[in-house]
Write a structure and sequence with these properties.
7-stranded mixed sheet, 12 strands, disordered N terminus, binds nicotinamide-adenine-dinucleotide
Length: about 425
């Protein structure tokens, strides 16, 4: 991460977004102020015995932003840059996201400051189990339900579920989502966020009267979100011209041989240029490619006022949370770039997490077809609702999504009143 990126505080950005959006909502100043605060923040420092028998102390966080509309919901991130303000911002965005797609969850997020790439599977398991125990007083299917995020996956969710279940004395599958299917995970959950990105991209293309066939797509990040989105763009006839991971990207202006590239990446954890039309590309170069659709699907603050003037994409569909700063937003809006904002574009994950939670609570198993059908309908409806606000109020899609999400949360808070 560059020093420029380190200086950007996502929580300040998230609070600024509340100020921008609430100008279009008739709320009293006290209610607006409340929305900028998180509800609960737990910081834990805990020891883990490493493979070489040394003990390392890790710092972890669980932050609940708002539970007016339902239990707290949000992912767990393992990354060296995790800190309290990052987790606060991500928790706040979860609140708005759940409200945009109108599912009965509040917002939360968690994370541990660590570098899982330098840890063994054993060490990651020990870290996960102890972290789960440390934050277990906040967790529960009716209280707070984690899911995977950057550098966590279904296996990590399985360890979290097992640890929580051991504490309770019986199996509690509904305490986390994004679990392996064998433990009560939902069919379609692994692919849900990437598919949601593609569904909203299709809606954007439809609105702009552009075809998906042959559309040039550049994707930053090749994890759960970026990798799945790439596969489905390719399946629908788009040309994925570039994709990257934290190290570098690969580019072919005529379209990548995606299956081969994804298989190689899965096997060797990196990209390699095997054809003469393919070239290596940096993450910065990828963002500035001339393309129809740009999908930032890695981490926050990738599009800033520094590189926004050079962004050539016609449409940006934000797979990642918070990839664009407000200053960059203004530049992109002036350039007429159509943005499908994060709290709409990547809401497919929390939507199918909700389906998983519902199936767990009711001990049901839905078919993949049923999950995808429900996901598609919710994403299309949400896109339409955000677009209508954007057009009627003449405001950018991001502001419109925030107006919809924050408006719903504010109304739920008003109806509940202030206790006691
Ligand atoms: P992941 O761990 O599966 O993949 C992350 C990808 O980003 C990897 O390819 C990694 O190499 C790349 N990356 C990491 N640091 C980078 C950097 N500095 N520059 C460029 N690339 C970098 O994570 P994911 O689940 O795909 O999450 C990606 C983004 O999507 C995050 O912002 C996450 O919060 C968001 N998101 C994820 C989900 C979900 O269901 N997994 C849901 C909603 C939003």
């Amino acid at each position: 991460m560059s020093s420029e990126q380190e200086k950007i505080n996502s929580y300040e950005i998230a609070k600024k977004q509340v100020d921008i959006a609430t100008k279009y909502l008739d709320l009293d100043p006290g209610s607006v102020e409340k929305l900028k605060y998180t509800k609960r923040e737990l910081i834990v420092h805990f020891p883990v015995k490493m493979d070489d028998e040394t003990v390392r102390v890790f710092t972890g966080y669980r932050v609940q932003h708002n539970v007016s509309r339902g239990p707290a919901k949000g992912g767990i991130r393992y990354h060296p840059s995790v800190d309290l303000d990052e987790v606060r911002a991500l928790a706040m965005w979860m609140t708005w996201k759940s409200a945009v797609v109108n599912i009965p969850f509040g917002g939360a997020k968690g994370g541990v400051q660590c570098n899982p790439k330098e840890m063994s599977l054993h060490e990651i398991e020990h870290l996960t189990r102890r972290f789960t125990w440390e934050i277990s007083l906040l967790l529960g299917p009716e209280q707070d339900i984690p899911a995977p995020d950057v550098y966590t996956n279904p296996q990590v969710m399985a360890w979290m579920m097992d640890t929580y279940s051991m504490l309770k004395g019986y199996s509690v599958p509904g305490v986390v989502t994004g679990k392996p299917i064998e433990l009560g995970g939902s069919l379609g959950r692994f692919e849900a966020t990437g598919r949601g990105v593609v569904i909203t991209a299709l809606e954007a293309l439809k609105f702009l009267n552009k075809p998906i066939e042959g559309a040039k797509v550049a994707i930053q990040g090749c994890g759960n979100v970026g990798g799945v989105a790439a596969k489905h763009f390719d399946r629908l006839g788009a040309k994925v011209i570039a994709i990257s991971d934290s190290m570098r990207g690969i580019y072919n202006e005529r379209g990548l041989d995606l299956q081969r590239i994804l298989e190689y990446k899965a096997k060797y954890q990196c990209f390699v240029c095997e054809k003469k039309e393919e070239s290596e590309i940096t993450n910065q170069e990828l963002l500035e490619l001339d393309c129809d659709i740009l999908v930032p699907a890695a981490i926050e603050n990738q599009i800033t006022e520094k590189n926004a003037p050079r962004i050539e994409a016609k449409i940006i569909v934000e797979g990642a949370n918070g990839p664009t700063t407000p200053e960059a937003d203004e530049i992109l809006n002036e350039k007429g770039i159509f943005i499908v904002p994060d709290i709409l574009a990547n809401a497919g994950g929390v939507t199918v997490s909700y389906f998983e939670w519902v199936q767990n609570l009711q001990e049901l198993i839905w078919s993949e077809e049923e999950v995808l059908d429900r996901l598609t309908r919710i994403m299309q409806r949400s896109f339409k609702e955000v677009l209508e606000i954007s057009l009627s109020k003449k405001i950018p899609m991001r502001t419109a999504a925030l107006v919809l999400g924050i408006g719903r949360v504010a109304e739920a808070t008003r109806l509940r009143g202030i206790y006691p």
